[in-house]
Design brief:
Elements (H helix, E strand, L loop, with lengths): L11 H17 L5 H19 L11 H17 L12 H21 L4 H11 L5
Helix pairs in contact: 1-3, 1-4, 1-5, 2-3, 2-4
Length: 133
């Protein structure tokens, strides 16, 4: 499978919203690990791909914490989809998929050598110290 293209900086506000949602859950549920994030985002990717093809969403087998994250991310994606945000961008399902695939790519990168919470521990300081609100 080809690697997803890098997310253009024009979509960084949405990427920040996705990663903030992930970090918020991690802050309140320290048992969350990268694998849980991967399963939740992969399920959401599969759901969006099915939606684009006009098919029913797949039946997902997720742990409770993965369901929680999946649902939070899904709610966020639904809020942003086809809406023109404050940054002037419209976030189509293609853009949403691109951003979710970028998170998957980051998970693979960090998880290879750096442990079960490598992605979470990498992204957390950036989210917690950001100037966004």
């Amino acid at each position: 499978m080809p690697m997803p293209a890098r997310v253009p900086s024009t979509y960084e506000l949405f990427m920040f919203a996705l990663e903030s949602t992930i970090v918020d859950l991690y802050n309140t549920n320290p048992e969350l690990v990268d694998h849980n994030v991967s399963k939740a985002t992969e399920g959401l990717i599969r759901t969006y791909q099915a939606k684009q093809k006009g098919k029913n969403p797949p039946k997902l087998r997720l742990k409770d914490i993965e369901v929680t994250l999946h649902d939070k991310l899904n709610d966020l994606c639904n809020e942003w989809e086809d809406v023109t945000a404050d940054d002037g961008n419209t976030y189509s399902s293609d853009v949403i998929l691109l951003c979710l695939k970028q998170i998957q790519k980051s998970l693979r990168l960090w998880g290879t050598d750096y442990g079960i919470r490598a992605y979470l521990d990498f992204v957390k300081p950036y989210i917690n110290q950001s100037g966004y609100d």
